[in-house]
Amino acid sequence: MFNSEIAIDFGAKNIKISSVSKGIIINEPAYIAVNKTTRQVNATGREAYQMIGRAGNKTIVEAPFSGGRIKSFSEAEFVLNRYIKRISSGKMFLPAAAISIPFGVTETERIAATNVIENAGIRKIAYIYEPIAAAIGAGMDIESDKAFLVADIGASKSFAAIIHNGKISAYSETDIGGISMNNSIIKYIRKKYDTEIGFLSAEELKHTIGCAVPREKALYSHVKGKCLTTDLPKDNIVTSEDMEAAIKEDAAKIVSCILSVLSDTTASNVGDIASQGIFLTGGGSLLYGMDALVTSKSNIEVNTMPNAEDAVALGAAEAIKLWNKNKKLELFETY
């Protein structure tokens, strides 16, 4: 099939590259800042991400990946090639890589992705579906005859999948994730406090005082922005209750996504899932109270994985190890 030591997860926020022997070796924002007119690249990675909302009129900051799919081919190729050179000591090519892709990706999308990845310097590609990689990264026995449910809350999307005997038997996806939560916070602050705040400020609020259910003790944070009435700077004290209200609809849609796969499977599978719990991965799963919210709506205990943010990337690398031990495992599709 293929001989690879590297696995790649294209996140809407971060691109993650994991090594079979070393774990995560690249974890950086998958953003690129380009001149609007000339399309010349001004910055990539963390530097580009910090330019969101601050780049000025002549520069646009873009995320070339979204939900594991490629939005902007030339920018995606540029970003990927940058990181390939870093991990291959400046060489132009890597022999092979395992790439995580969304379940349900079309053949046209797969061909387009293959062209970009090959042009970026990877010579042989093996694809693994994100739910399978997330499940392996969460420590699941992929060959188990018992069904289990893995849900991933990412930056630009969330998905839930039931996996049984190494196959995805039910799947649901929503375009709600960390980015949409940030945008919901921006809208909420605009409406309640008559203040426009930036994307990065909203993300900071989400991380520091955000919650999917009420906190035992309310938290407070200052946030500065531009008053919409006066156009002057304005400082507001925002509460964790504000954050819960701001992202309430987003959190509800993620829960609905998870519940939909439970309604789309057999009673025996639901019984297996109830006994093992729901396995929650992705950076959004670390939001305070997200596990409690899912449990309250599903009546099933939730296991939030300690490596939640990296589960897909680590799982794709671990899948290489599993395949090397047992070549009969149908984990990958090669190109």
Report on the architecture of this protein.
The chain has 335 residues and is α+β, with helices and mostly antiparallel strands. It is built from ten helices and 19 strands. The protein has a six-stranded mixed beta sheet, with helices on both faces. Helix 3 (107-119) links the parallel strand 9 (97-101) and strand 10. Helix 7 crosses helix 9. The protein is flat.
Quick structural summary:
The protein is an alpha+beta fold and 335 residues long. The protein has helices at 45-49, 73-87, 107-119, 130-137, 178-193, 199-209, 240-263, 267-276, 290-298, 311-325; strands spanning 6-10, 14-19, 23-29, 32-35, 41-44, 59-62, 65-66, 69-70, 97-101, 125-129, 148-153, 158-164, 167-174, 195-196, 220-227, 233-239, 278-281, 302-304, 333-334.
Structural features:
335 residues; alpha+beta; 6-stranded mixed beta sheet; 10 helices
